Amino acid sequence: MGQEGLKRKHRKTVYTTETKEEMIHEVFNGRTQEEIAQACGLSQDSLLSSWIKAYTGGKKSTGKGRVNRMKGRKTTLEERLEIVDFSLRNDRDHQSAAEKYNVSYQQVYSWVQK
User: Fold this and answer.
1) Which of 46, 53, 77, 92 is the most buried (most CB within 10 A)?
2) What are the GO MF terms of this UniProt record (predicted)?
3) E strand residue ranges, 1-114
């Protein structure tokens, strides 16, 4: 950021849930966290890391700072295959699959990667 990066900010930058999710999906699509943080002007690289941790840990933002924890459940191999198939048919929409089948985002993401 050059000299601009050394100036004090008087306001905290607020990022919308949609913006955070876009950045997280960029990481899932192969861009590095450093690239995204620099391109989006994040003040700290750790911001993106913390958002990813919250997102993949099954936490779902409900706005106004509240977060719901979505817990996973035990599944059979057949259920996992069905969930992976659903996610792949819907352009890797892991969040929709997690909500539809009542499992965590992290589980869906992991199964699709495998």
Assistant:
1) 92
2) sequence-specific DNA binding; transposase activity
3) 59-63, 66-69
